Amino acid sequence: MPHLNVHESELRQVFQNLITNAIKFRREDSRPRIEIRSEKIAAGWQFSVADNGIGINPVHFERIFDIFQRLHTNEEYEGNGIGLSNCKRIVESHQGTIRVASSPQHGSTFYFTIANLVT
């Protein structure tokens, strides 16, 4: 993993949220599988958290990063719709971006970048 000049507790929150979501939104018929990767890019580092969960319909890709936006009822999955919006706020505060690639029943991969803020 790269050595970056970031707020460690905030970056930990991003990873915790993405990993927790990967476990929470798992498919009933399979064990959760989560892959975490990092890659050096021109502007800094790109991280990805991929899972084999229930996936997300592409029409909701932008909406899931807005605060209090949920795709499921509380009876289906608990939560309040704050996690991904908090991830977006943290990543953007480190001069980065966050996005998702997904399709229903085929898992999701969340990509986020952190600017090259090495000390």
Largest sheet: 4 strands, antiparallel
Any idea what the radius of gyration is? Answer: 14 Å
Structural class: alpha+beta
Can you count the helices? 2
Uncertain ranges? none
Structure description:
There is one protein chain. With 119 residues, the protein is of the alpha+beta class. It is built from two helices and four strands. The chain has a four-stranded antiparallel beta sheet with strand order 1-2-4-3. Helix 1 (8-24) runs antiparallel to helix 2. The longest helix is centred in the first third of the chain and has 17 residues, at 8-24. The radius of gyration is 14 Å and the shape is globular.
Q: What are the salient characteristics of this protein?
A:
single chain, 119 residues, alpha+beta, 4-stranded antiparallel β-sheet, 2 helices
Summary of the model, kept short:
With 119 residues, the protein is of the alpha+beta class.
